[in-house]
Amino acid sequence: MSGRSAIALVLVALAVIAGGVLYATARSDPPATVHAASAELSPSPHPTPAAASPVGPASVSPTPTPTPSATASRTPSAATHSASATGSAFVVATGWRTLSMVNRLDQTIWPAIAADLKHPISATGWVLAPGASLSILVPDHWDVRMWARTGCSFGASGVGSCTSGGCGRLECGSTWGEFPSTLAEFDLNAWNGMDFYDVSLVEGDNLPMWVNSYGGTSTDRLDANGCSAAGCTSDANPTCPAKLQRVRAGKVVACLSACLVFNTAQTCCTGAYAARSACVPSAWPIDSAAVFKKAEPFAYSYVDDDATSVLTCAGECNYRVTWGVSS
To answer: Nearest Cα to 202, choosing from 16, 31, 79, 44?
Structure first.
């Protein structure tokens, strides 16, 4: 994505031909030191600049958090349009989008983003109880990764820890969370008014997730229940091979990629294995890509899995990120 050090990893060019969309992807080799680097849209993991102090419009329907979120310090343009994630319309300033988060799991989660410092928003960490949802406003040209943390505990200052996906604070700012974590990746207005977005398990998986777009023109292949033509959303953790399991207090809380576990050029598709023809998950000691693709058929399961995993939307689209399994 454009706000990251590895923008050269991906270039997606689209041409509309006879009512269809043709995707062509080019990439350069990721650094040899990258652990499970997502060549499709990902940077070298774990950059840790100083925590951001994001600003922007306040959340549309915020959920209380253990520590207060930053209040808005910038007023959107007076020109507005209506948008709705749930059927009840509210007014959104031109140049801003609605991003809704929905927790369909039976556990509390703590969504977070690694902030786009060029396009900040009012908060970078939230808490969602089971069945809860919230909506925030995000700016055009927003370029971020989003994930959710589990088993978190934060003090009054917002400092704390999580059993998966943690960044050390409720508000992650521009700091990445711990891998493995299921990622939603967004690059809004990335090319000719087109948004690119996806779900990535390249860094591993901690929670089932899917993303829907609405309010624009999209080739979104997912329905509201997290199903695509290739299948529906399930939890990878119960089927995760023992060697790939992240266990906390006797419970599997995440499933690591083969790259994270073995950290070889072969499993990370770097060096001599960087070419698509040489990046073959079935040849790895454990094929984590097969595990992830079965759980979320629409998601990136390894770095070259882009034929069915890149989603696009044009026309100032809005988004809904859902954590849960298809019912």
So the answer is: 44
